[in-house]
Amino acid sequence: MTVTASPTKVTQTNQGNFLDTPQLASGVTRFWLIRHALVEQNARLSLYGTLDVPLCPDSLIAQRPMYEALAARLPKKANWLVSPLSRTRCTAEAIQDAGYGTAQLTVEPALIEQDLGAWQGMAHHELPHHLHLAPHPFWSVSASECPPNGESMIDVCARVGRGLDRLAEAYAGQDVVAVSHGGAIRAALAHALRIHAETALHFSIQNLSLTILERLEEGWRVVTVNELPGI
Fold first, then answer.
1. Is 87 exposed, middle or buried (0-12, 13-18, 19+ CB in 10 A)?
2. Closest CA to 36 of 74, 73, 90
3. Which GO terms describe its cellular component (predicted)?
4. By the 8 A CB rule, do 21 and 225 touch?
5. Contact in structure between 131 and 144 (CB atoms under 8 Å)
6. Separation of alpha carbons 199 and 33, rounded Å
7. Are 95 and 208 contacting, i.e. CB atoms less than 8 angstroms apart?
8. How much is the pTM?
9. What are phi and psi of 116, to 5 degrees?
10. How far is the C-alpha of 50 from the C-alpha of 183, rounded, in Å?
């Protein structure tokens, strides 16, 4: 006897959430995360973490085309956030001056860089003598290493994750341009992808690069990572 299976009705419930065109849909909670510009040369010789170090004046001039490309790439009428450190504010102002136009900058403490505590200001070559764990191959310290009076990258991921969820509610359905830091943007990726901080440190987040995250009803989505403007 031949048995014929009854046809099964398949219901597609995820229509409309695919990125099929270059144009991103409006009305989506979307974060445009930008790492600040290159800091001044002397500051790069040491661990600066949350120290308020200035930007490199020469790079501000030489990388003008990158600022112009970012100004053209970013959505108009977006909400702008910066961390409490001046290097993010100066980067945001440079992008706006390069063609975006003036927009209010709101300080968001959750987006600050990893606090390296007592190790801030220490020369890079001195750090290995103070570590309890082997450093990450792409970061100064292991994700689990907590500097004295500072925070581990695991702590940063928790802080940034809480902040992103809060901001996603506050700016629901809107675009948010946030000028932040390499560590904080990696933490945002860890939160969006639900991966360990140690894994997230494998992402390359270069100065002036753009990372785009979306908060949909189904969860967080990563649109682009480390996109370099004008390249």
1. buried
2. 90
3. cytoplasm
4. no
5. no
6. 19
7. no
8. 0.91
9. -90, 10
10. 11
Contact 185, 179 (CB under 8 A): no
What is the DSSP secondary structure assignment for residue 34, as one 8-state letter?
A: E
- Domains delineated in the chain: 37-227 (3.40.50.1240)
Q: Residue 99 CA to chain centroid, in angstroms?
A: 22
CB atoms within 10 A of CB 76: 8
Determine the 3-state secondary structure of 206 from DSSP: coil
CA gap 30, 147 in Å, rounded:
33
Sign of the Cα pseudo-torsion (46, 49, 52, 57, in order): positive
Strand partners for 80 = 105, 177
| pLDDT single digits (tens) 47-84 | 999 999 999 999 999 999 999 999 999 999 999 999 99
- Distance from C-alpha of 151 to C-alpha of 224, rounded to nearest angstrom: 27
Exposure string of 101-134, with b = 16+ CB inside 10 Å and e = fewer, is: eebebeebebbbbbbbeebbebeeeebeeeeeee
Quick: pLDDT tens for 80-125.
Answer: 999 999 999 999 999 999 999 999 999 999 999 999 999 999 999 9
Instruction: Quote the CA–CA distance of 190 and 203 in Å, as a whole number.
Output: 10
Q: 3-class secondary structure for 98-149?
A: HHHCCCCEEECHHHCCCCCHHHCCCEHHHHHHHCCCCCCCCCCCCCCCCCCC
Nearest to 121 by CA among 54, 42, 199: 42
